[in-house]
């Protein structure tokens, strides 16, 4: 795994409240012992001050319990509208980790970072660990922006929460199953370990970030039907038609560009198509040119020729 800088993530749970209780208790005790005349007034002022000071934290903690119910596990919360990154820092992180960003020209890089800001703005990032990395919200969001770079709609408003786990995590619907990522309800879940492996090996056809974001864009456009991208929706049937043929071909022994997991159903086939499209575009084009072409039309990109935008949007 790549080396990352440890980050000063705000750790909301309890700390301010503990400080408040200690401060309040000491002052109140002192006032009582010294028979300080306005002790009751002091009590009242500090109580109001303490409630105001910790109310925000209490809300955040409440959200953690409501959304995950993970007893005993600390969750760090990043609120997209509170995240502050310098342009140079974003540029540095994206250049270092995201090959796609490297093929963009300077104006396209500016658009990419702008879209990234917009995407993160309405998201809450939940890190299921005691420490996190500054790159986490950026890189997870960046995989979505990579897929949607040629589309008009890219914000995935259906998914208000992005959960990041240090490694594979338990499937809440099937407690005996571990997952590297999944998309459900209003949330996208990612194992950071597997997510970073997608970046460490950018041409092995496996990238859990791209995989989950592909599911998310499908869900946004066809299930939630909110913030729909018209071009994506009108081009998808063409992809589907070709995908059905390739799906059948890949079931024949010897054809193994796609994994067995992709042949589970059309949704997994779609998500893995996106992984291959970005990570093994040459192989996908050689083996299934029609499928590759349908994805170029759908996403308005051409990864084989390193063209991130085929037509203006
Ligand atoms: Zn999947």
Structure, described:
The structure is a single chain. The model is unreliable at 1-15 and 55-72 (pLDDT under 50). Helices cover 55% and strands 8% of the residues. Strands 1-2-3-7-6 form a five-stranded mixed sheet. It has two domains: 15-68; 76-305, Collagenase (Catalytic Domain), CATH 3.40.390. The longest helix is centred in the first third of the chain and has 30 residues, at 39-68. It has helices at residues 15-33, 39-68, 87-97, 99-102, 106-121, 135-147, 192-200, 208-224, 230-250, 266-279, 281-287, 289-299; strands spanning 76-79, 124-127, 161-165, 169-170, 178-179, 181-184, 187-191. It is built from twelve helices and seven strands.
Number of helices, counting only DSSP H or I runs of 4 residues or more = 12
User: Which strand order does the major sheet show?
Assistant: 1-2-3-7-6
Quaternary organization = single chain
Bound molecules: zinc ion
Question: At the fourth CATH level, what is the homologous superfamily of the largest domain?
Answer: Collagenase (Catalytic Domain)
- Give the DSSP E fraction (strand runs of 2 or more residues): 5-15%
The number of domains is 2
End-to-end Cα distance: 36 Å
Unreliable stretches covering 5 or more consecutive residues: 1-15, 55-72
Describe the sheet with the most strands: 5 strands, mixed
């Amino acid at each position: 795994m790549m080396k990352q800088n440890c980050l000063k993530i705000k750790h909301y749970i309890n700390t301010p409240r503990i400080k408040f209780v200690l401060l309040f208790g000491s002052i109140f005790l002192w006032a009582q012992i010294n028979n300080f005349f306005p002790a009751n007034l002091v009590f009242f002022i500090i109580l109001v001050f303490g409630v105001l000071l910790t109310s925000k934290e209490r809300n955040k903690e409440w959200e953690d319990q409501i959304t995950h119910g993970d007893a005993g596990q600390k969750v760090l919360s990043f609120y997209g509208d509170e995240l502050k990154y310098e342009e140079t820092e974003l540029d540095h992180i994206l250049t270092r980790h995201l090959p796609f960003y490297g093929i963009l020209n300077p104006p396209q890089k500016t658009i990419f970072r702008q879209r990234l800001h917009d995407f993160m703005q309405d998201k809450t990032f939940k890190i299921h660990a005691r420490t996190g990395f500054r790159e986490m919200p950026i890189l997870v969001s960046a995989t979505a922006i990579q897929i949607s770079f040629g589309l008009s709609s890219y914000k995935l408003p259906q998914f208000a929460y992005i959960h990041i786990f240090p490694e594979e995590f338990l499937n809440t619907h099937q407690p005996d199953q571990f997952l590297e990522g999944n998309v459900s309800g209003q949330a996208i879940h990612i194992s950071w370990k597997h997510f970073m492996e997608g970046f460490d090996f950018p041409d092995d056809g496996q990238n859990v970030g791209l995989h989950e974001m592909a599911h998310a864009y499908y869900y946004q456009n066809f299930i939630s039907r909110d913030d729909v991208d018209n071009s994506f929706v009108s081009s998808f049937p063409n992809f589907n038609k070709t995908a059905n043929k390739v799906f059948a071909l890949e079931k024949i022994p010897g054809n193994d560009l796609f994994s067995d997991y992709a042949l589970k159903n059309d949704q997994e086939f779609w998500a893995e198509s996106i992984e291959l499209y970005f990570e093994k575009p040459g192989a996908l084009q050689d083996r299934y040119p029609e499928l590759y072409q349908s994805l170029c039309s759908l996403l308005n990109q051409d990864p084989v020729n390193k063209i991130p935008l085929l037509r203006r949007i």
